[in-house]
Amino acid sequence: MDIDQARGPDVGASAMADPGVARRSAPTRKRRKSRTGLAFIAPFGALFLLVFVVPILYAAYLSLFQERLVGGTTFAGFANYGKLIQDPQFWDGVARVVRFTLIQVPIMLIFAMAVALALDSMRVHGTRFMRVTIFLPYAVPAIVSTLMWGFLLGIKYGLFGSLNDALGTDINPFAPGTTLISIGVMVTWAFTGFNMLIFYAALKAVPRQLYEAAAIDGANEFQIVRAIKLPALRGSLVVTIIFSIIGTFQMFNEPQILPSMVANSGVTTFYTPNLYAYHLAFTGSQQGYAAALALVMAAITIAVAYAVQIRGLRNATDQ
Amino acid sequence: MRLSRKTRLLSAVLAPMLALTACSGGSGGSGGKTGGGTGGGDEQVKLTVWSWDGTVAEAVAGFQSANPNIKVQVANAGSSQDEYQALDNAIQAGSGVPDLVMFEYFAVPYFAIPGKLADLGEFGVDKLKADYVPASWSDVTVNGKVYALPSDYGPSAMFYNKATFDKAGIDKAPVTWDEYYEDAKKIRALGPDYYIAQDTGDIFFLLSLIWQAGGRPFKVDGTKVHIDFTDPNTTRAVAFWQKLLDEKLLNTKITGWSDDWNRALNDGTLATQTMGGWLTSTLPERAPKASGDFRVALMPQWTQGDKVGAANGGSSFGIPAAAAHKDAAFKFLEYFAHGGGLSSRVDAGAFVPNTTVLDNEAFQSKVNKYFGDQKVGAVLAEATEIVGTGWQYPPFFEWARTIYTDIASPFYTTGKGSLAGILQQWKQRCVQYGNEQGFQVD
Question: How far is residue A91 CA from its own chain's centroid?
């Protein structure tokens, strides 16, 4: 289907050779212009259809079917959606990522912003080194970082094991009640640098004259931060919040790997919606149900992200 | 700017769906290529074999020189679940279906019941039955038909650290579970880190315990599955293990196959592992420092004087119903799992349930240096021959064992509840899921 779409402009080109077309020259030129435009966006359009629209439509199509080991695949209408709405395991996962987002994202962004402001203040030495170092964790694959933190936080042979021995405490970072906090630490470690870079770039774009003017007006560093830098960060704050919400709503790697390292960390097969979808599709062979879950989760994420964007932009125009 | 941000947002949100659809494939469309293909004749046949058992490749050269018209290509399509997914996808897509595929025993019914595996009866497989340990044959038999040939076996055995036993003043391996319980207390007394074993909710272990005690919690008949964890044999096994957990005689912090586990095996603080015989090959890699300390014994018995065993793991090879070269595939299967190619695999370390190998004098008398020059083969051969027959796995076991952890985890972390309660809950979930999947489960 998408291939036909891509060929569209070619068909138009051969039609132009038709002598009959030449008679109606004025509208043709106009159409030709738009056709040329189409030809330019065709490669993008074809890829967009192929890797973006078609898979979504296909997921939507799949979500209308139910697979059974006995009896095969049957059309189920919206039964998967009905079942999903009443599935406590799904909502348990959703509630967990929402809770996680509400706590982890603000901490991470405040942290990233503080670092960006510090780097931008020109009062720290080795700015470039610091920038790269803080960004580095972002380049570590989540699987590697989870393994690393697993060792670090492990109570048997890890750092916390030694700490507990030294202090006589009994803290377990991977008990069912604390695992989510540990994952929060891992995620914050990994993504602070990324968000810091976005903030830092926004700060670099602030015209230097503003600072000079502020200095002439006698503003101190904190006043400059409050009156110039923080307002300048508002736009990128919206972006980072949206990215972070999407990222945490899709949490998968950490809860997927942890159970093989730590016993009974409280991570269930439905710990996050993505993990649940994975288990439904690949161990439960319920692809239709998993597709429904993915679509509903996408709808929730889009709704939340849009709400943030609209609010963020409204505030931006207020000022 | 706005638009691009929006598109990026969308693409980030929808990325997992792409992954999902990429893997699920269309429905139907298998059928297609059926029939025998060519086994004899001059025509060249290219066989594709999916295996994560490295020893299968050992048999290829010998087979090809005996059958010059068949070319065998052994590929690793992932282990266990990864491979099953790949096979399901290939069958759904109707292309790229391999001719011969490795399955753990519990996965055989999953593929056999929906008709995805060829019935090996048409190749005269029944003639081979007498050459296999009975329990392994029942593992590949579903509703009276044979769908795979056993290729390796995991008789449950007790691996114990003799050095730790000596330290605790225990002079011999426990023969009954009662003795095991007494030994557990002695080892616990050695120090805060010392335990006779670990358990963080290992369903395969618990089932092997039930299996040995005579419980048969799953009964599969056609698409009917009956689940019962309340018969006296099952409850006896469960109650025993519950007692060890209640008295804190087991380490519930260390999970099998983790780094912590390796360390504990190395330093001798975990005194025993009751597991499949395959541990023989991986233990030396995981616990090199304990070289010479470990010994192998039969599982402790429920009744003094009995000799009953259970299995824990093992695998087999079957031919997909949609395979292109079934005759040639069976020919190779017979060769490496039963005929001329078997010895090359045994030499490479495979532990097979073939009586010809197990009864072999050379196999039984070979000493293993890691296990203090013990004749490990003799112990495992005996453990294999005493495995209780009639055990069945439900066709949705892969799913069931994954969610078992969800249910068991709260008990192992808080101590609230009981194993019996977990199994009851597990049964309910299995009943619900099984019925949704079109089985009649009760």
Answer: 20
Note whether residue B407 is domain-resident: yes
B259 chain-A contacts, CB cut-off 8 A: 151, 154, 157, 261
- Local structure of B53: helix, strand or coil: coil
Which residues of chain B make contact with A285, given a CB cutoff of 8 A?
A: 88, 399
The domain tally of chain B equals 2
CB contact B22 to A (< 8 Å): yes
Q: B210 and B308: one domain?
A: yes
Domain check: are B104 and B187 in the same one?
A: no
Q: Is residue B141 part of a domain?
A: yes
Assigned CATH class of A81-318: mainly alpha
Whole-angstrom Cα distance, residue A307 to residue B9? 13
Chain B closest-CA separation from residue A75 CA (Å): 11
Domain, as residue range, for B105 = 27-153+313-365
From residue B78, give the alpha-carbon distance in Å to each of B72, B75, B85: 18, 9, 9
Q: Are residues B284 and B411 in the same domain?
A: yes
B5 touches chain A (CB under 8 A): yes
Q: Which residues of A touch B413 (CB under 8 A)?
A: 175-176, 264, 266
Q: Tell me the C-alpha distance between B138 and B104, whole Å.
A: 13
Contact list, B255 vs chain A (CB under 8 Å) = 260-264
Q: Where are the domains of chain A?
A: 2-62, 81-318
In-domain check, residue B16: no
Query: Residue-wise pLDDT tens for chain B (442 aa)?
Result: 333 444 444 444 444 444 444 343 333 333 333 334 444 455 789 999 999 998 999 999 999 999 999 999 999 998 888 899 899 889 988 899 999 999 999 999 999 988 999 999 999 999 999 999 999 999 999 999 999 999 999 999 999 999 999 999 999 999 999 999 999 999 999 999 999 999 999 999 999 999 999 999 999 998 999 999 999 999 999 999 999 999 999 999 888 888 889 999 999 999 999 999 989 988 999 999 999 999 999 999 999 999 999 999 999 999 999 999 999 999 999 999 999 999 999 988 889 999 999 999 999 999 999 999 999 999 999 999 999 999 999 999 989 999 999 999 989 988 889 999 999 999 999 999 999 999 999 9
Side-chain half-sphere CA neighbours of B270 within 13 A: 24
- How close, in Å, is residue A302 to chain B by CA atoms? 7
